[in-house]
Every structure is written in C-alpha cells, then in structure tokens.
Write a structure and sequence with these properties.
- It comes from Phenylobacterium conjunctum.
- This is Methylamine utilization protein.
- InterPro entries: Cupredoxin (IPR008972), MauL (IPR034242).
- Keywords: Signal.
- The chain is mainly beta.
- It folds into two domains: about 15-50 and about 140-170 and about 175-200, Immunoglobulins (Immunoglobulin-like, Sandwich), CATH 2.60.40; about 50-140, Cupredoxins -  blue copper proteins (Immunoglobulin-like), CATH 2.60.40.
- Helix content is about 5%, strand content about 45%.
- It starts with a helix and ends in a 12-residue tail after the last strand.
C-alpha cells in the first residue's frame, strides 16, 4: 500500500497543473472569422507531454485541390497523400523543413512522407499550379486549428504562464505569425486575436 501511495504521489508531482480549455477566436480587422489559423501553446508546465492529435494525418488530392488546406501534425509523424482524383498528381515541397517529391501517381494510389522537424511545409502539385496546402509540424501537444467560425480550442492546457502563437499562411506578419504571452487559470482561458490577412494567390478574397 505504501509503495502504491508513493507512486501516486510521484505521478502527481510530475504531472503539470491542468487548466481548462484555451479558446481562441481569430478574426480579421473587419470582424470576419479566419479559418485555418493554427494556434499553438508553449508552456514550461506542459513540457515533456506526449504529442497526439485526434484527426487523421492525411492530405488528400480531391477535386484538383489538397484536403485539408492546412494540416497540423506532431514532429515525427508520417502523413499519407492519397490521390482521389481521376487524374495523376505530382506532390512536392521545397521547404527547408522537409524537401520531398512524390512523382506522378494516379487514382486510389497513396504515398507517405515522414516529417521529422518542426516548422511549416508548403505543398504544391507539379501538374496543377493552383493546388496549394500546408503541413504545420509542431513540437507541442497544445495545438489546434480554427474552423469556419474562426475558433480554435486547445483542450486540457496547463495552468500558468505560456506563449501563444497564431499562424496563418496569409497573415501579414513576420513568419506569418503572431506571438503573445498568455496566463491560464484553473478555469482555462479565452483569447481574441485580430489577424490582418493578405489576399491569397489567384483569389479575390479569402
């Protein structure tokens, strides 16, 4: 019994102090919600925690687009690139984070790539120039992406001081990101971020 109690005490000491959820609302200066913004949280209290996300690590080629437009994965993840179109695709990236080339392959075929360094990896198709997407490789378990409502929720974030980063491929800022300090309480927290976006290539608006 004593051994069990000591083990439980040690686990309690090693575990970070959990807060509630961090909810982040990202909007343009005119109040429009920003979709596909990636919110990450770096906290000393959460260091060393395993990184796992619930969504599939997949970027499909479908309807001559990449789906999803932005994918968030942990460092060391292997991402699948299935082709669901009736035409062939040639997926590549010139990013220093992960340079790769998946040469022409057809419908119902798939290729995989392992992303072993954190950072942003832009994707393209050598056949269809309009196809653009991003793999955001993170080294923190506290990450989420905004939906159509411009809201991202990071579950079970650790209490205390942390650094929050908001990234979007069209954000008008250095490295396409904003960084701000935040402090979470036992009830979690709510943050609002104003993101000034440039026009995406080949589009009249976003």
């Amino acid at each position: 019994m004593r051994t069990l109690l000591l083990g439980l005490m040690a686990a309690a000491i090693a575990a970070p102090a959990w807060a509630g959820d961090l909810t982040v609302s990202v909007k343009t200066p005119t109040g429009q919600p920003v979709r596909d913004a990636v919110v990450t949280l770096k906290s000393p209290a959460g260091a060393g925690q395993p990184i796992r996300f619930s969504w599939p690590y997949t970027v499909a080629q479908q309807n001559i687009t990449f789906d999803p437009f932005v994918l968030v994965v942990p460092v060391g993840s292997t991402v699948s690139f299935p082709n669901r179109d009736n035409v062939r695709h040639h997926v590549y990236s010139f990013s220093p984070v992960k340079k790769f080339e998946l040469k022409l392959y057809g419908r119902e075929e798939a290729r995989t790539v392992t992303f072993d360094k954190p950072g942003v990896v832009p994707l393209g198709c050598n056949i269809h120039d309009q196809m653009i997407a991003y793999v955001v490789v993170v080294d923190t378990p506290y990450a989420a992406k905004t939906g159509a409502d411009g809201v991202a929720v990071i579950r079970n974030a650790p209490a205390g001081a942390a650094s929050m980063t908001v990234w979007h491929p069209y954000l008008k800022a250095a490295r396409n990101q904003q960084v701000k300090p935040v402090t979470l309480t036992a009830a979690g927290g709510r943050e609002q971020v104003t993101a000034d976006l440039r026009q995406p290539p080949g589009h009249a608006g976003h």
